[in-house]
Amino acid sequence: MVITLADVAKRAGVSRSAVSRTYTEGASVSDKTRSKVMKAARELGYTPNIIARSLATSRTQLVGLVINNFQNPIFLEVLDQFTRLLQERNLRPLLVNLSDNPDPADSVEMLRQYRVDAVIVASSTLPPACSLAFKEVGLPVINVFGRYNPTPDVHVVGIDNQHAGAMAARTLHSRGYRALGFLGGPERATSTQDRLKGFKEGLKSLKLKTSCVHYADNYSYETGYAAMKELLATQQFDALFCGDDVIGMAALGAARDAGISIPKDLGIIGFNDMEMSSWQAFGLTTISQPITDICNSTVELLGNLLENPERGAETRLFPCKVIERDTLRKS
Amino acid sequence: MVITLADVAKRAGVSRSAVSRTYTEGASVSDKTRSKVMKAARELGYTPNIIARSLATSRTQLVGLVINNFQNPIFLEVLDQFTRLLQERNLRPLLVNLSDNPDPADSVEMLRQYRVDAVIVASSTLPPACSLAFKEVGLPVINVFGRYNPTPDVHVVGIDNQHAGAMAARTLHSRGYRALGFLGGPERATSTQDRLKGFKEGLKSLKLKTSCVHYADNYSYETGYAAMKELLATQQFDALFCGDDVIGMAALGAARDAGISIPKDLGIIGFNDMEMSSWQAFGLTTISQPITDICNSTVELLGNLLENPERGAETRLFPCKVIERDTLRKS
DNA sequence: TTTGATTTTGCAACCGGTTGCAATGCAAAA
DNA sequence: TTTTGCATTGCAACCGGTTGCAAAATCAAA
Fold it and tell me: Which residue is nearest to nucleotide C14 (CA to C1')?
């Protein structure tokens, strides 16, 4: 037997509206009524039914949180931040795993059925069409870690991957490396493409050419290790820009196994600055994304979006930073 | 302008009930009516409102997923599995981050307000009282990675930590180590306590005593590293059972830095078999929990629980397994 | 064709809240 | 004391579905 508004109203000797109003921010209720209601509610153990409220207000306070990468530990941090920030704003994350099927249609339908107030798509590997699909059914959507688009059709918060690629090129060059290779994540990921593009352009402006380009199909150690072995067997290079720290660490492992001296004979720079890159077993020099800034900005933008859903699409880019460790020669 | 049941009904020339029934599993509708409705719905772009349905049926298909450990990468895998398994059953995970505030009261209230059908508390560090709090307000709850309790008041799915501790003791002993130490995770975590208890009992039946006992306050590398350094400075031992792989890897790092030969002069066994323990930079011998079995079993139990919420509390324990790598001598 | 059993259908009440509107109460101003 | 203005209150309709029940339709058997 569950307690409803009406029960509380009866016990407090007021109307149902009065009860509703004491639970509504900024509604007009006298202190006297409010305290009568509170008392009755406490005595009965009343808990407002948000589902019913959602129906009436057509606001659920639910936010779809779409993720497709449960391999990369960086996303655990992302989840941590998002859940915290959303909780602070009284928003609730409905988690969606898009790993196996990159076709968002089902998820779109599902989140629509739940009438979520907005959607966060956190992925650098999902195609832009995915976020668009949400927008097309009228759901406010933010693509975090998405691709920069000069004429955006969907809100994007993240980094400028091209710029980061150029930064990697300049950094390697400044340490005296000259034969620079690229070992990216999945080739189809826009983040990979953009980083490579920026890397190449960076090299060009330094009058250099990319020594080799190779990809790891996913962000696992094995894949990265195998890719690096192949690279070592077939290519010449004295420094490597890796599309992710996991791959960077795998490359580091493979190089060490091949007896290559790091950073003397080979320099490696990773991407993401995950927790364990700092462990002294690796000491991987890497480029970090300002995850905290990105997540904060996303949720803040989300807040604005809920006030004004028609707000035009914008792009928010944050600068990356080189994290100095032991896999590059000192400049 | 959003399309409702009534709109579809009007266009299809049937009653609202008919529309509702075509969207309800196992309801009685003729094929003719059903197809008329489907056609109208398609033409109008109708999406049923699950919130309204939830209100009417008092079933939301929402499941609270409570996590408090966003540091340990193992939980990313857990999240991956749970989201997948829940999705398969048309259940939706509402993610709750209990990191900062271990007092579950707010979360209980929130999940209650959303009328979630059930709650999964996935944690080995939260006190049992936390899961109980959910039960007390009438929410079916399963504590995953929880503590074994011979007279359980809450459903528990996980491993027998005591048994695992004994397994660690036997394993170290069988490799010829005799001065066995324990470096656990947070002391207050029941999993830590139980593993230590089992470890001690295992030693006792081998006529040995624990050489030293120490704890790391959390599951981070730094903390583990510092704890290990202290241990090395103050204690004598030739093998160490670590409460978690992160700590194990930190211990490994600290030992190497101290110039200790592993596994010859010091054996280390970890816990959890996380992805990177297998990386050849570590090759950490460890004890693995059968995460997949545990998650499967949890969701299956959850399914049963939804059918019959009054089902008595049960405990489901799965066996752990030693994963042989390079940080123990061969037997 | 009639009868009885079985499906299918629509009506209307209900799920548990919110909110516009008119009525009421109350205090300050006239 | 009467009037005016504002804060409070309750009524009743509404949000978008589900479902028990009785009536209508369908089907098979007689």
Answer: B56
pLDDT surpassing 90 at residue B41:
yes
Report the predicted TM-score, pTM, of the whole model to 2 decimal places: 0.94
Exposure string of B229-241, with b = 16+ CB inside 10 Å and e = fewer, is bebbeeeebbbbb
The CATH number for B161-289, chosen from 3.30.70.20, 3.90.950.10, 3.30.70.1730, 3.40.50.2300, is 3.40.50.2300
Domain boundaries, chain A: 5-57, 62-160+290-318, 161-289
Domain B5-57 sits in CATH at: 1.10.260.40
Query: Taking CB atoms and an 8 Å limit, are B50 and A99 in contact across chains?
Result: no
What is d(CA B316, CA B160) in angstroms, rounded to the nearest whole number? 9
Buried b (16+ CB within 10 A) or exposed e, B118-140: bbbbbbbbbebebbebbbeeebb
Give the Cα separation of A7 and A4 in Å (integer).
Answer: 5
Give the 3-state DSSP-derived string for chain A, with helices as H, strands as E and coil as C: CCCCHHHHHHHHCCCHHHHHHHCCCCCCCCHHHHHHHHHHHHHHCCCCCHHHHHHHHCCCCEEEEEECCCCCCHHHHHHHHHHHHHHHCCCEEEEEECCCCCCCHHHHHHHHHCCCCEEEEECCCCCHHHHHHHHHCCCCEEEECCCCCCCCCCEEEEECHHHHHHHHHHHHHHCCCCCEEEEECCCCCHHHHHHHHHHHHHHHHCCCCCCEEEECCCCCHHHHHHHHHHHHHHCCCCEEEECCHHHHHHHHHHHHHCCCCCCCCCEEEEECCCHHHHCCCCCCCEEECCHHHHHHHHHHHHHHHHHCCCCCCCEEEECCEEECCCCCCCC
Name, in order, each residue with C-beta under 8 angstroms of A54's C-beta and a sequence gap of 6 or more. Answer: A60, A61, A115, B51
Q: Is B20 helix (H, G, I), strand (E, B) or coil?
A: helix
- CATH number for the region A62-160+290-318 comes to 3.40.50.2300
| Chain A residues closer than 8 Å to B279 by CB | 221, 249-250, 253
Question: How far is A24 from chain B, CA to nearest CA, in Å?
Answer: 14
Tell me, in Å, how far CA of A30 is from C1' of D3? 24
Q: pLDDT digit string (tens) for B4-27?
A: 999 999 999 999 999 999 999 888
Query: Are B75 and A76 within 8 A, CB to CB?
Result: yes
Least confidently predicted of A148-157, B81-90, B160-169: A148-157
A35 Cβ contacts chain D strand, under 7 Å: no
Do the domains at A5-57 and A161-289 have one common CATH topology? no
Query: pLDDT of A162-178, one tens digit each?
Result: 999 999 999 999 999 99
